[in-house]
Amino acid sequence: MSSRRKRGAAGANDGGALAFKKKLKSDDEILAKVAKLSEAEKKKPKESVTLQDLNLPNVSKEVVDLGAPQVISEIEKTMLSVAASILNGHGFGYTIPTRTSANQLYVPQLDRIVLKDKSSFRQYGNMSTVRKTAITTRILQLIHQLCNKGIHVTKRDLFYTDVKLFQEQGQSDTILDDVSCMLGCTRSSLNVVGSEKGVVVGRLIFVEDGDVIDCTKMGVGGKAIPPNIDKVTGFQSDAKFILLVEKDAAFMRLAEDRFYNRFPCVIITAKGQPDVATRLFLKKMKSELKIPVLGLVDSDPYGLKILSVYMSGSKNMSYDSSNLTTPDIKWLGVRPSDLDRFKIPEQCRLPMTDADMKTGKEMLEEDFIKKDPRWHAELELMVKKKEKAEIQALSSFGFQYLTEVYLPMKLQEGDWI
Amino acid sequence: MSSRRKRGAAGANDGGALAFKKKLKSDDEILAKVAKLSEAEKKKPKESVTLQDLNLPNVSKEVVDLGAPQVISEIEKTMLSVAASILNGHGFGYTIPTRTSANQLYVPQLDRIVLKDKSSFRQYGNMSTVRKTAITTRILQLIHQLCNKGIHVTKRDLFYTDVKLFQEQGQSDTILDDVSCMLGCTRSSLNVVGSEKGVVVGRLIFVEDGDVIDCTKMGVGGKAIPPNIDKVTGFQSDAKFILLVEKDAAFMRLAEDRFYNRFPCVIITAKGQPDVATRLFLKKMKSELKIPVLGLVDSDPYGLKILSVYMSGSKNMSYDSSNLTTPDIKWLGVRPSDLDRFKIPEQCRLPMTDADMKTGKEMLEEDFIKKDPRWHAELELMVKKKEKAEIQALSSFGFQYLTEVYLPMKLQEGDWI
């Protein structure tokens, strides 16, 4: 706090922006703070708290990543139990875990949402569930086929294989999630993937479907993150941290300036709202490399929302949360307090709209904000000042201010929360 | 036509889909038709008709790609002529080419839109143009700086460098286009780029900012196309054609099945509406490799619109059209006549909405459709039947029908128009 005041005073005459530049130390000294964070990360126990350790009432299990042979075996087991149910006189049906919010639980120790153990019996011999039962059976058959062939398709492809039965994509999508919960595996284990949006660049080497990908040799455009995470293996890296960027404009600046060569890191973005593939990739990369993730997002409620999706998951995928979420992301910037500290000009700040204010106020009550008083204080400041700013607002001090001053300064001071 | 009828009859009992599979020849034979098309492509004269050759009245010049030193020199020349104008008593101002549709011309021989030679004098000493003149000067200064530093930024970055002057991004964007026309160079020569969306995979090697990128070794996710095309050089390929795909779901199917290893090709997609970076990349790749481009889009007006943007450009970028457009794309599929021919089930076809019908009817009048009677006939069929279908509708015959039957059959029969 005292250093912040000092800085503010020092920069009063020259706009603050240049004052920071003068205070930058050598790159090695700048890296020292991050190196400490990385070391702490590597020393963390291999698996911290698991759902089993907590032994929560009414919470049974989480879905896990399964390989294709295991998924096939789970489907076959399911069909055998259906046959048994028929022979026992209970009829043709499936026991499906309930995915409504009443059956969801936020677990603070894990910092994610999990499903409780309520379920329902979906039976064929009932007018209200006969269609859903038929669709469930068809989806199980299609997944069995996909896993047998070892190929991946999108939800849309799946829908088109039997439009007559599914009628609309919403129906096959919903039941796909049911099937994933029922089999106890992640949606990506079912070989049904979303579209890819993310890109990655920097000090990272991995193997993708047999090809060795060196992300330091991916030019300025980076490597597209594949939709099928199970084809990604063998992460290797000498990076000290992962820089998670909200937008592609900032990604482009960092890639073109080869920021990762000056400060060894991996730079990743989903270009806005994170897709499943990018979230899986980040999660896998972080847990294998054991290095910290620093988040660079716009200073607005939407930027925080994006961090929250990476960290806690989205509600409708809650059953899949442990595989999709990266709980301990540090909020590097652009934070509401940065606006004054870095003296972002008034005209580069935008007034928050009514919708922004509503989202901001709602988020103040959310668990992932409340659990860290520093996060809560930043969001309170945003809502109080009714101001937001994009990462690009830093361009007002020069196109390369982001890579040459702002980020090095942040790293030097260990200014993440 | 006769072969189409025969096929329809042959497939009457088994849904048609399997009938095609039986008719597939060996891969070498399938490739024969494409090989002919490729040879024809390579024999084309190096530069076909240019704007100069046509010697059109009221059409002076097109913008061209310029290197950074040339852009710098053009800016300096412009400022010298401004100084001369002041000394001559004509005041401070710029001569700006008019970009309105009244000053645009579709040139059938080139199959693209070009600007005619109307221009206006934008002067500082006039209440209605003083702001625009100031913004133009500031943009020229910023571009000069970008070209000097050799870095690339987005339009949004540019806007944020002087929000006080630009007020809103629309204003700096518009004048950026004016500056591009005035200097006679493409927007990408100004080092202002759009965001990247496209990905590429297949039999292609190129150099990106010094890194050698081998697109056969890009796993299933492919290589992200960089926003700054001037960093891309040294295209090498043994591909027989470029497969331009509208959507990422189809791209994923082709990449995962490594379609390019069976039929040597390069596969590229912009994931929907094409962005400038993907269009520049396609144009550059095609003109250096001299191989045909086959388009695979949805059978709906939007799919055709996407082809038209690749081929003829969009109206508001018309001045930049020669650098952005790839005129001779072959329409491979999914064409309206394919729906019956491949017996796409009724439930996988979608009724066209009112907006679809309106767009479809308008497109029937457009030059790029009218110039080829076969294209016109296909669109007429679509509008007449009021039916559309997505590429994914082919999944109704199996997830890999696209790569194993549909595309090989299309290639075997040379069924593109």
TrEMBL record, chains A, B:
Active site: 160
Residue span, Type II DNA topoisomerase VI subunit A all-beta domain: 196-233
Localization annotation: Nucleus
Enzyme nomenclature, EC number: 5.6.2.2
Top-rank taxon: Eukaryota
Boundaries of every Topoisomerase 6 subunit A/Spo11 TOPRIM domain copy: 241-411
Name the UniProt record assigns to this protein: DNA topoisomerase 6 subunit A
Gene that encodes the chain: TOP6A
